[in-house]
């Protein structure tokens, strides 16, 4: 149990995971000791910086969500990965951690033996997916070693397949930097990019928006983010009323609290950008060692926030229109008698922003706007469809917030209800066929789809 706990703590920390991969790559390249040390610490510190910035963002999004709920009289379910995971951990802790470890091993084996060369480095999302898989498979009467092996295989397979599905879009976003999407909102981002491809051929990039010289300060991402978020907070504070805002702010003046929250949010975004730059500066060179010596042609799949600096204006546009899509989705669910899914600020910021970036990469402003809006609609409808599945498992009134969790959870749950264990084996068989077929069709050793 001590070893299992140690592995759990290492594998659930993306910072250590990135550091270990970077260290292995640098050792494979026979780099000198001081370069191994700095090249290992760089990604670790960069990810901790990214996490610190994300923590600031999340801490400031929480009161905004409360003010919106109070001011606009909305009650319902707020999708939250952390909440459903904490509930599941009380029942399925050992199974979840075992699936996490086995899933990582399967991911490495798949990357070594197939053309799906993508190594998934976002440990906390692997942890959330392991939790979902342990819950759904457990409810379908899978137990013990079989549950862990099937759950681990599905986790490892999806960790390699999901980055590959939209890698040609990811390369457009990064302008050829060989990193991949390692985040389980990926299907929403690729959908946004596909929509951008359809509607935005001639549309100007969000990053090329012409700004008059007197408004040139808006090109400073931190300042423009601060100004936009201050407006958001002020509207929410006015709608919620001074008494309520004072109750959640420790007695601060509502307007001062709103302005400070908007400014702190912008600081969080700036810290994320700084952390991303630090990660990429050391991780990509170190990954050459992994790809040349250990797993030929390996591609690192990294957190969605790593893509924010590639299109900072699309980040804000994506958040705004994803949130709008979530609101409209909530009203549609209310009109048809469904469960109200209140737009969660965290998924709409991180997933909406990333959908905006991917939509912009293929369809400019039009792609960023419509792609993130459609992503927001799905972030309302998919959690609503997943809720009954999780409710049947005893996790009522809580649901996962991101795209891939909902799709896999609904698919496994419904296939299991329809055909019991046979339905799950069919899904495993399909994943296995997807992994093997590219190697049978081509002798190339390049990572599949890793070209524009």
Automatic annotation (TrEMBL):
Localization per record: Cell membrane
Membrane topology qualifier: Multi-pass membrane protein
Assigned GO CC terms: plasma membrane
InterPro entries reported in the protein's UniProt record: Ascorbate-PTS_EIIC, PTS_sugar-sp_permease
Keyword entries, A-Z: Cell membrane, Membrane, Phosphotransferase system, Sugar transport, Transmembrane, Transmembrane helix, Transport
Main location: membrane
Keyword match Cell membrane: yes
TM regions (residue ranges): 12-29, 41-61, 91-111, 118-140, 146-165, 223-242, 254-276, 367-390, 422-441
GO biological process: phosphoenolpyruvate-dependent sugar phosphotransferase system
UniProt record similarity statement: Belongs to the UlaA family.
Functional summary from the UniProt entry: The phosphoenolpyruvate-dependent sugar phosphotransferase system (sugar PTS), a major carbohydrate active transport system, catalyzes the phosphorylation of incoming sugar substrates concomitantly with their translocation across the cell membrane. The enzyme II UlaABC PTS system is involved in ascorbate transport.
Subunit composition and interactions: Homodimer.
PANTHER family according to UniProt: ASCORBATE-SPECIFIC PTS SYSTEM EIIC COMPONENT (PTHR33843)
Name assigned to this protein: Ascorbate-specific PTS system EIIC component
